[in-house]
Amino acid sequence: MLTKRQNLWETLKGGNPDRFVKQYEFMNLIMEASVTMAGFPAPGQTSKAAWGITWMWPEGQIGPFPVHDEEHKVLKDITEWRKYVQAPVIPTDDETWAPAIAHAQAVDRNEEFVTMMAAPGVFEMTHHLMSMEDALMALYEEPEAMHELIDYLTEFELAYAKTVIEKIHPDALFHHDDWGSQINSFLSPEMFKKFFLPAYKKIYGFYKANGVELIVHHSDSYAANLVPFMIEMGVDIWQGVMTTNNTPELIEKYGEKITFMGDIDSGYLDLPDWQPERCAEAVERACRRCGKHYFIPCLTMGGPDSIYPGVYAQVNQEIDRMSREMF
């Protein structure tokens, strides 16, 4: 039986995997000392996190989002972004990093990838600072200022990457940045290429040049029109691929260059009254239509969990069943 790492590589290269890769099983996420994720609220809370962004998680909702009224919006004028935007301090002391280092050292790297999680991504940061509407309008109305802001965010990511690599020597990177809705990308491919492709080529190129073997990018959305850019920037696995992307078609077209992780929509299964039978149906459909190579069956949620307890574990059970049937 192949190890989790070996089975992953066989899947990615179109070789001889002996079972389906089971969701996030190959990534051991190092969440400690994550500068950009510190300060997120719990359900029912409001808090101020990195970059001075105020987050609110209303009771009954499945997650938090930045508050963008005039009082709480960080970036009030893109032409004066230097006045409003201040990158958080990246800690370098041993005490802060001790839990992350201990976690990384405890991972069996023959079995799992020591994986650094980075979120929010560059595009998300632009609209977290000033709202989605302001960010999208600024790309058209103030492109020079937006390029400057994106460069600033990119330099922060590179500085953070340098510290992460020095401290825990990750094998993999799991990077969040949602690039679309369920039916289309937020930006046209032309706009994405102009503003965000250069940033990600720098970021992912830096990780790859410094010992990181695997880049996993999360975008639980439609982004089929951006796959060529994912390949160009160095993404090995696109996680969060919704069924609206036509995953089998993407595998046929791009499979030798990138692997697709998803095709099991969390919005369809991860519900208060979730049903095991529905999980079984969705997993079987994904596995049979997508096949054994260049595909990892997975909920589209950006982490090894589900909103409602039991869904993630049930999907794992169904993937095991499909491995027994198809391998």
From TrEMBL:
Alphabetical GO biological process terms: methylation; porphyrin-containing compound biosynthetic process
Entry EC number(s): 4.1.1.37
Annotated keywords: Lyase, Methyltransferase, Transferase
Pfam families reported for this sequence: URO-D
Domain (Uroporphyrinogen decarboxylase (URO-D)) ranges: 110-292
InterPro entries attached to this UniProt entry: Methanogen_methyltrans, UROD/MetE-like_sf, Uroporphyrinogen_deCOase
Enzyme class per UniProt: lyase
Protein name (record): Methyltransferase 1 MttB17
GO terms assigned for molecular function: methyltransferase activity; uroporphyrinogen decarboxylase activity
